Amino acid sequence: MKNSETLPLITRKAPVKYYHNENVSRFERRRREKSKKEYYSRLDHLNELYEKDEKLMEGVTQPEENEKRTDRILANLSIALNLTLLFTNLLASILSGSLSIVSTFVDSLMDVTSGLIIGICLKLIKNTNMFNYPRGRARLELVGVIICSILMGIANTLLVVESIRSILSGNINPEMDIPTLSIMLGAAAVKIILCLVCYRRGSSSSIVLAMDMRNDIATTIVAIVCATIGDRYWPYADPLGAILVCGVIATSWYGHALEHVPHLVGKRAEGENLSRILKIVIEHDPRIK
């Protein structure tokens, strides 16, 4: 019998499995290629963060005033649009009596409320008395996010209960006439335009605004479709659409809250952030070997 040292590695009973390419299945090759792409993608992202940190340490990455002004303008436009949509969705809800349209009004109301709560929290953080709060009040923003998530969950749960009650009682009378449809489509069109502008802008704050508007656009389109079907073809489509919209919104905010709870209770930073800090600590002085 041949010595085990002269046998191919594939026939050994080694703890580490190794297979030649011709013996690897197609699915395994695709999995490896996907893992390799993800690895190099994370590596490229980390290198970009390293370069950004180096420029920041050199004092050359402070945003220009024009860039800050553009982001502020987009943020103010988003706030003004949310306030406008609050009243237009309220008007559309009254005209149509549709639960799907009411769900978009609840979404707009909670967007305005959450923005107000977060703004108050940020103002309190900025005006912190360091004598009374030696560590600052940075976590107050996380508390604000959790409060918004709870309020959003309660509001959408109440609307889901009302939708189920309408289904059981059969009291469903949505009316999607031309004025209501025009109001909803016009609001969605304006939000689509502003969303595209934010995506084209490409800054971190504008991307966050664009993602929020993208979700609002999706829920608005679903509400319009379900309300129209409920008015013209199948009445139960309207409360079912309201349940779908509320479920998506509540799930999104629930996941958002779960992401922030670990930071509130003191979870350590992510691996890439620890790596960035370690690199700065090691390389900030040439005397460190």
Question: How would you summarize the topology of this molecule?
Answer:
Elements: H1 26-58, H2 65-96, H3 99-126, H4 140-169, H5 178-201, H6 204-232, H7 237-264, H8 271-283
Can you put this structure into words, describing what you see?
Helix 1 packs across helix 8. This protein folds into two domains: 47 residues, no CATH class; 215 residues, Alpha-lytic protease prodomain-like (Up-down Bundle), CATH 1.20.1510. The longest helix has 33 residues. The N terminus is likely disordered. The chain is mostly helical. 75% of the residues lie in helices and 0% in strands. It is found in: Membrane. One of its GO terms (molecular function) is monoatomic cation transmembrane transporter activity. It is a multi-pass membrane protein.
In short:
The protein is 75% helix and 0% strand. It contains 8 helices and no strands.
Structural class: mainly alpha
Query: Strand share of the residues?
Result: under 5%
Second rung of CATH, namely the architecture of the largest domain: Up-down Bundle
Distance N to C terminus: 53 Å
Write down the overall geometry: globular
* Cα Rg: 26 Å
- Count the domains: 2
Order of helix and strand elements from N to C terminus? HHHHHHHH
CATH topology of the largest domain: Alpha-lytic protease prodomain-like
Indicate the low-confidence ranges by residue numbers: 1-19
Question: In this structure, how is the largest beta sheet organized?
Answer: none
What's the level 1 CATH class of the largest domain? Mainly Alpha
Transmembrane segments: 73-95, 101-122, 142-161, 181-199
Membrane topology: Multi-pass membrane protein
Domain Cation efflux protein transmembrane: 77-264
InterPro entries: Cation_efflux_TM, Cation_efflux_TMD_sf, CDF_Transporter
